[in-house]
Amino acid sequence: MKRFTAFMPAVILLCMAVSFVSYSQNISGVKLTKAESGYEIEFTLPSYSLQTVTKEGESFDIINVENYGITPNEGLPMLPQLTFILIINKAETLPAFYIQTESTEEAFLHRKIFPSQAPWEKSRNLKDRPFTINRNYYTTSGSLNTPLVKISEPVIIGGVKAVMVTITPFRYDPSAGKLVVTKNSRFRIDLQSGYPSYTSVAGSFGEIFSALAVNPESVRLAGTNNYLIITPPEYESVMGTFASYKASMGYSVLMVNTSTTGTTTAAIQSYIQNRYNNIATRPEFILLAGDIDKIPEWTGIGSDNPHTDLNYTLLEGGDAFADAFIGRFSVSSAAELTNIINKTIYMESNIGGLPKKNVFMASTDNWAITEGTHNFVIDSFFVPSVYTNVKLYTHTYNATTQQLIDALNNNQVFAIYSGHGSTTSWADGPPLSQSQVNSLNNTYYPYVYSFACLTGQYQNAECFGETWIRRPKAGSVFWGSSVNSFWDEDDILERRLYRAMFTDGLKKTAPMFVLAKYYLVQYYGSVTTDMRRYLEMYNCFGDPSIYQAAFGPVIAHTCLPNTENLNGPYSVNCVITPSGSAIDPAKTKLYWTRGSTFTDSISMTNSAGNNWSASIPGNGSAAVYKYYLKTCDLLNRVTILPPDAPASYFTFTASADVTAPVITHTQLSGVGQPMWPVNVTGNVTDNIGIDSVWVEWYKNTPSPVRSFRLNNSGGSTFTGIFNSVNSDVTAGDSIFYVIKARDNSSNHNIGMLPSSGYFKFNITTQAASSFCKSTYVPIRDNVTSYDTLFIPQYGTIVDLNFKMTSLIHTYVGDISFSIKSPTGTEVSLSNQRGSSGDNYTNTIFDDSASVSISAGTAPFTGSFRPESPLNVFNGQDIHGAWIFKVTDQASGDTG
Q1: Which of 102, 369, 551, 806, by CA, is between 20 and 30 Å from 37?
Q2: Does the bond joining 677 to the residue before it have cis omega, within 30 degrees of 0?
C-alpha cells in the first residue's frame, strides 16, 4: 500500500509577490493556478445532501456528494472525499504543501454517520453480509484532527510521474454529533524541480491524464504507437496475419517469440523492460498469444493474490499503475487462435456500421444494485434513443437462459453481466454455461464484460472467459476476474467504465478498463490491498487495442427503392463522416452487380462537405441490382457498408410494377357510442412506394358511401379518424368500411382490405375501453419524472380507473404520483404511502374500491381508492395527452 504524507494547516503563512497563470480544469470544484515555484489550488465544496438509512434497527445518515469517493476505513464513519492526480516533474520527490485559507461551518447531527463497510465477495449472498461498526470509535471525538489534504507518494503511469491529492472536507466528532465542513479552501503545493512537461506520452495515456489529472496540459502526445506481440514459436505464423492487420492500422508492430524473450515471467518482463527503457521502442500495447502454459501469468500481491498479467506492464516507479496496456489471446491451439483473430478483425473493421445493440444481464441476488447499475449505465450512456438495449434481469423480468441465448444469437455489440459467477459459468442473471457458449451461432462478436467472481480464472483449466474468445462464434473480447469480485466495487467499476468510454471519449478496450480501475482507486483514495486486488484481478482476454466504438470513417446511406426506370442511371448518395483523418478518394468506391458476384466498381465523387455519390448504369432491361459501399481514410482505416459486405449488400429491383400495396389491419369491433368517431390504423407497404391511403365507409346502408384519408404517422403506419361527429350515430347502428391504398407506379396499382366487401362493426350503448402503454422511465432522486399517454380516440368519460402493472422503487414512502387529463385536471393517486416497502405491482386506482391507498401496504397489489377522487374526470373527453407524474422527495432510493 502506498504511504501518504499528511500535513495539518500551516501556522506560518509566507507572504510573497507572485505572478499567477490559471488553467481551466476538469475536476469539479477544483481550480489550479500556476504560481511561482508551485501550484495554488482553490477548492470549493459542491452541494451535498444527507440520506437516512436504517441498519439493525438504528438510523444513520449518509453524506452524498456527486462524483466524490468515500473514506474506506471499515467500521468508521463513511465520509466523502475527493481524489485527483497532479502531474509532477520526473525529478520531483514528495511535494510539500501548506493550507493558506480554509472556511468551515459546523453542523450537529441527530443520527450517527453510517460506517464504511468491509468489502463483500459476490460469491456470498448479500443477505449474509455482516454490518460492520466500530462502536468504541463512535464514543470518541473522531476525525476532527484529520488533515484536510493528503498527498500520496509519487507514482509513475505510462512514463509520467504524479501524486494523488486527496481532499477530505468533512471531519466528524461522533460523540458530540458534530460535523465540521470545509466549504472552501486555498492551499499551496511547492515544486522543488520545476513544472512538469512531458513530450513523448502515448496517446491512450494522454486520454487517461485528461480524465484524471488537474493539470493535463503538462502532457503532450508524441507516442510511437508501438505494439508488441509475444507469441510461442508454434503460433508465430498464425499471428503474422494479425500483426499485418495491426500494422495496416498505423501501429509500429514488433512480433517476437518466446525463444527470444524467454519463457519465464521474469525473462519476459525483462525483455519488455528493455523495450520500455528506450523511448523509441517503448510499447503502448502488449499482446500475449497463448495460454499460461506458453506464456506464464503472475501471482499478484493484492488481497487473495489474483493471477494477473498486470505485472508485465509495471515497468517504472515501483507502484501498481500500468505503464503499458496488455491483453492476452488465451488459446490452446492454432485453430482457436485463428478464431479470435478473425473475430477481432471483423469487429474492429466493422464497428462503425454495426447496429447499436446491447444486452444487459443482472442477477437476482442484490438485484437492486445489479439492475440499478445497469439502468444507470443505460440511461446515462447507452441512451435508448441511440442504442437498442435488451434487459435480461432475472428479478424484475424473470429473464431465462433461452432468452439470453436468443439475444446473443441476435447479434449484440456489448454483453454486460453483473451477478454471481464461477470458473465455468454465469450462475444467475440468467445462468449460462460453457456448453451453451459453445453452441452460439451469432455473426457479430460482442465485447463481453463480466462483473462477477472467477469467470476469468485462467490459472486453471479453460475458464468461462477463455471459452468466449476461443470459439468461432461467441465474443471478441472478455474481461473477467481471476478471483472473487466484490459487490460495491463492481458497481463503481461498471459505472466508471462507461464514463471512461462516453464522457472521457476513450474507445479502445484496455485504456477504457484501466481508466475505470484508476477511477475506482480514486473513489477509495489510495491503493489499499483490496484496490491492488482490483488492479490485478480483471484481465483482458483479447486485443487490448481493439476499438469498441466507431474510430474510422462512418458511412450513412439509405438503400435505393425499387424503380420502374430500366435505363438508369441510379444515383447512390451517402454521407461519409471522417474521424480525425481525411477520406482517401481513390479508395472510396461503390461496388455493384446484376449477377451473383461483384465484378464492377465505381469511384465515388465528393459532391459537397461529407456527401459522396456515384451512379449505377442501367441496361434497359428488368434486373435485380446489388451494391455496397467502401471507403478508407489516410490512416488506412477501412469502413464497409453493410458491415459484412459482400456477403450482405443493398438491393433494389428495376422492373415494371404490377404489384398492389399490401395492407394489414386489426378489424374494429363494438365501438361504444360515447367513443365515436374512432381512429382507423393500418400498416401499408409497397415495393415501389405509396401514393395514398384512404377509407371508404357507410352507416347501415351504402347510400351515401363516404371516404377519408389515412395519413402516414411514421414508417409504414397510416392512421385517420372517421369523418363524422358523435351525434351521427346511435346505439345499434352498423358501420361498414374498407381500406384502400394506391401505389405511385405507372400502373397506379390499388390494394384493398378486405379484398372484397367491407369490414363491419356495431355501435354499442356504452364503451369500456382500455388504453395502455408499456414504457420504461427512470425515477431519479429528488426530481419529478413524467410519462405521457396520447389517446387518439374521442369519447366522453363516464368512469375512469387507472392501473399500474409495475412501478419499481425501493422505499416507496419517498414518492408521490398523480395523473393529469388533457384539459389540465390533476388527481393525486398516492402521496408518500408504503413507508420503507418496495414497488407498486398490479395496482388499480378505482373510486369504488373498498380500501383507501392510505390503508394499503407495499407492493399495493389490488384495488384502492386514490388520494383524490377520479370522478372529477367524468364528462371530459378522453382524447389527448394524459400525463403521469412521479415525484421523488428523498435521496438514496430510485426506481
Answers
A1: 102
A2: yes
pLDDT tens-place string over residues 29-76:
999 998 888 999 999 999 999 999 888 889 999 999 988 999 999 999
Pinpoint the residues of the chain covered by CATH 3.40.50.1460.
226-541
- Rounded to whole angstroms, how far apart are CA atoms 721 and 877? 15
Is residue 231 within 8 A of residue 206, CB to CB? The reply is no
According to DSSP, the residues that pair with 77 across neighbouring strands are: 115
Q: Where are the beta strands (DSSP E) in 36-95?
A: 38-44, 49-55, 58-64, 69-70, 80-87
pLDDT value at position 179? 95
779-810 per-position pLDDT tens digit: 776 778 888 888 877 777 878 899 988 888 88
Segment 715-773, tens digit of pLDDT:
899 999 999 998 999 999 999 999 999 999 989 999 999 999 999 999 988 666 778 87
User: Boundaries of CATH 2.60.40.10 in the chain?
Assistant: 554-654, 662-764
Element (H, E) at 257: strand 252-257
pLDDT at position 17 is 29
Query: Which architecture characterizes domain 784-888 according to CATH?
Result: Sandwich (2.60)
Give me the CATH topology for the region 4-220: Immunoglobulin-like (2.60.40)
Fold entry, domain 554-654: Immunoglobulin-like (2.60.40)
**Mean pLDDT, residues 620-638 taken together:** 90
Q: What is the DSSP string of 424-480?
A: TEE-SSS-EEHHHHHT---SS--EEEEESSSTT-TTSSS-HHHHHHHSSSS-SEEEE
Looking at residue 2, what is its pLDDT?
Answer: 28
Distance CA 630, CA 511 (A): 29
Cβ neighbours for 379, distance < 8 A, ≥ 6 positions apart: 778
pLDDT at 205: 93
What is the pTM (predicted TM-score) of this model?
A: 0.68
pLDDT at 23 over 50: no
Is the domain defined by 226-541 classed in CATH 3.40.50.1460?
yes
Instruction: Answer whether 706's CB lies under 8 Å from 721's CB.
Output: no
| Backbone CA torsion sign across 438, 441, 444, 450 | negative
Q: Is 205 left (phi over 0), alpha (psi -120 to 50) or beta?
A: alpha
Q: What is the CA radius of gyration of the chain?
A: 32
